[in-house]
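Q&A log
Question type: sequence-to-structure
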Amino acid sequence: MSAIRTLRGAEGLRRASFTKTYTDTAGNGAIGAVTLFTVTGEVLIAYLMAFCTTDLTGATATITLGVTGKVTVAQTPLFIAATIATDIDANEFWVDTTPDAAGIAIPAALKDIVITDNILNDVATAGVTGGVIRYDCYWLPLSSDGLVA
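Response status: OK
Response body:
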């Protein structure tokens, strides 16, 4: 008979939160991918939410949300496909390519996802020249070294 084990952290969700200010500089909205959350081991992403607190700006900039190896348009982003940055306005949830104000049901692409790779933003076409998004990640470890930071 096998022993029943309780997975460390399974008693409640853990939260990692990160606020990104976009300024069209390296790591802050310039063209390319940047890590938002570093992932170690295996984790279950229970919910991943992005809430805009200041309008994004940047004429033709697009932005995606994914993981290492699945963040660019060519790789089909894991969480949110390429979105025109200027469509993401203050007080809107960015949950898909058409951000929503007030409230919205969390789409399947942003919940109950298992990953082993870092969570990234990818900016393409042009830099995101301004704006602020708060990213909240609620997660559980699956492996003994599972961590989102």
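Response note: The chain has one domain: 14-148.
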